[in-house]
Amino acid sequence: RHTRYWRDWSSDVCSSDLLAELMTVFLGETQTLTSSIRKAVELDDRAVLQRAAHTLKGASLSVGAMRLSKIAALLERDAEDAKPERIKTIFAEITEAMKAVVKSAEGHLNQ
Fold this sequence. Notes:
By secondary structure, this protein is mainly α.
């Protein structure tokens, strides 16, 4: 799913070299954001959680990782008021979605 999007994007919007660079930056940024979210979940730091989720939402949306973006939006929305168990459940969903995005991006980069 993502690979088709990235292939179309590279032919319509930018060169494959630029796309590879953007994907590499995206992967690095999302790993950092995921770590920040994990730490915020552990510390129950709702302000950091909300900011990191917002940034992950936008970064994911910009590369077509729609499922990851939607889950990050959910976390951003619920960060302030949800019970810790709910936050942990959403974070688990982010982790799974992130694995799928990384697998797809790495597959595209290795073509």
